[in-house]
Amino acid sequence: MSKLDGKIALVTGGSRGIGAAIAARLANDGAAVAITYVNGAESAEALVRAIKSNGGRALAIRADNQDPQAVEAAVAQVAKAFGRVDILVNNAGIFDVGPIETLTAADFDRTMAVNVRAAFVSAKSVLAVMPDGGRIISIGSNLAVRAPHPGLSLYTASKAALTGLSQALARELGPRSITVNVVHPGSTRTDMNPADGPHSGAQKALMATVNGFADPTEIADVVAFLASPGARSVTGAAWTIDNGANI
């Protein structure tokens, strides 16, 4: 029996990169997996087909995290399809950077809507269909802990907010044995941040090890542990995976 047999997971922003790796890993561990996406319909459907071809259950839902009603509707659709949600992974996010003089109030609102408000809305919505002992895991960033260069004010603030939200929810939902944690990836090999990209040298220079960029599967491994029965006593915690860049 796999660790997550019979569990139902929802991964927001699960069509590519870290989100896709998380969805694939949870499915491999036995969970039925729903993913949301905005523009990546083709990659989302390809992931669903891959999971189903391996004998799993999967569902792709188009939902924009900027729209609270879309987030709520996605949770409702997962509950209708699979009966409940045992594991929520708030992965969807955007990366707006630039000097504060160039950023606008609209930039602030969009970043907070996608990176923070959506996590709040999805957590609030899922509680009605999440049994006791569920899991809520948000994907933050090591930039929430340390801003190594200028231009990160919005992104750092939004990801730091996820830590505070997770800690508060961990305390609030503890009586239901629902654990709430945040995972802070550092430089991770994705199409948006390739290991040979123009800024990769500066990112690697911050690391304590010579391992280079993490693979998305490494982030998925940590999420899978936090979603498993073995992590039932882990809550309100922040897990940083950045090869020591924040030391």
What labels would you give this structure?
7-stranded parallel sheet, 41% helix, alpha/beta, 247 residues
What's the arrangement of secondary structure elements?
Blueprint (H helix, E strand, L loop, with lengths): L7 E4 L5 H12 L3 E6 L3 H13 L4 E5 L5 H15 L4 E4 L14 H22 L8 E5 L13 H21 L5 E7 L14 H6 L10 H12 L10 E4 L6
Parallel strand pairs: 1-2, 1-4, 2-3, 4-5, 5-6, 6-7
Helix pairs in contact: 1-7, 3-4, 4-5
**Total helical elements:** 7
Secondary-structure class:
alpha/beta
The amount of helix comes to 40-55%
What gross morphology would you assign?
A: globular
**Radius of gyration from the CA trace?**
17 Å
Strand percentage: 5-15%
The overall strand count is 7
Q: Tell me the series of helices and strands, N- to C-terminal.
A: EHEHEHEHEHEHHE
Largest sheet entry: 7 strands, parallel
The end-to-end distance, rounded to whole angstroms, is 39 Å
Low-confidence stretches: none
Strand order of the largest sheet: 3-2-1-4-5-6-7
Mean pLDDT: 94
